[in-house]
Amino acid sequence: MDENKQSAGRGARRNLKQNPKKNKNAQSKKKKIRRGGSVAAFLAALLLLIALGLRLRELNAQVEQARQERDQYQVRVDELQRQNAALSADLEEGVTSEKMQEIARGELGMVLPGEYVFYNTDS
């Protein structure tokens, strides 16, 4: 039985060799299948690249937002460090009547007798 299958296979190959039109049709069908597969693979790769590009763009926006937040925090840290340095200097200097008077004027609005206070109402 194996010989029959082999001889039938040989006969089919001979028919393809003898009939070039059938051979070309078979080859063109194979090419169409290959082209279809390559088009599908190309489209899949293209969709993957588009998805990756969109994700990359989204991540880039997040990085930029994080940089802006970092810059804002750095400004705040610098401001707090200046305040800390001023308070440390005040502690080292100790309590003086001039310092107490400066704090009372600045924070509590103290006015000495005979002084005039002018307020700017434009702002």
Q: Would you kindly provide a brief summary of this structure?
A:
The protein has 123 residues and is an all-alpha fold. 84% of the residues lie in helices and 0% in strands.
Keyword list:
single chain, 123 residues, mainly alpha, 3 helices, rod-shaped
Explain what you see.
This protein is mostly helical and 123 residues long. It contains three helices and no strands. The chain has one domain (2-108). The chain is rod-shaped.
Q: What are the segments in which pLDDT stays under 50 over at least 5 consecutive residues?
A: none
- What integer is the average pLDDT? 81
In N-to-C order, the SSE pattern is HHH
Indicate the structural class: mainly alpha
Estimate what percentage of residues fall within beta strands. under 5%
Structurally, how many domains make up the residues? 1
Shape verdict? rod-shaped
Write the topology of this structure:
Blueprint: H1 2-18, H2 20-93, H3 97-108
